Amino acid sequence: MATTSDLRTNIIIRYNGTLHRVVEFHHHAPGNWRAMVIMKLKNVQTGKVIEDRVRAGSDIEIVRVDKRPMQFLYRDGDTYHFMDNETFEQIELTEDTIGDPAKFMKDGEMADILFYDDNQILGVEVPFFVTLEVTEASVAVRGDTATNITKPVTLETGAVIQVPAFVNQGDVVRVDTRTGDYIERVK
Description:
Elements: E1 2-3, E2 12-15, E3 18-28, E4 36-43, E5 49-55, E6 59-62, E7 66-76, E8 79-83, E9 90-94, H1 95-98, E10 110-116, E11 120-125, E12 129-137, E13 150-155, E14 160-164, E15 172-176, E16 181-186
Antiparallel strand pairs: 1-6, 2-3, 2-6, 3-4, 4-5, 7-8, 7-10, 8-9, 10-11, 12-13, 12-15, 13-14, 15-16
Keywords: Cytoplasm, Elongation factor, Protein biosynthesis
Protein name: Elongation factor P
Main location: cytoplasm
């Protein structure tokens, strides 16, 4: 059995009878009291985030999750279609299952589908950074470049992000899929 010292970010644990992803955790030792671990957990089924604390050294149950690389084929409304490149099996997932990174997924890109017990899909892990083309951008006003002025742009996937004023339509930018933040302009 694993203990709280085995906790890592993004692992799946069974907590209070349901599956949760560890969002963050930290060890806390308040003076003369017993040490504790404060955990922020996200329920895999509902997406609800809870924060709880347990005594340091307590037993936890880490759930074994299988990752299968699959290719994102296309989007049809709120449904995303993926294909296993080895077996050519196709699956459909809703936008809720994928989460916020869904808006940065390009056709043909690879993603890891997380399976529990070979049939229950827990979620999708997309690459942390993607490069996307800017399809719509307003023109920067002269004089706005003196400070850190940002403007909204639309990317080829339809996502809208804030970028510096010097980014124009047709530029390719790198985006962090975890936060939706602009990283850099790519040549």
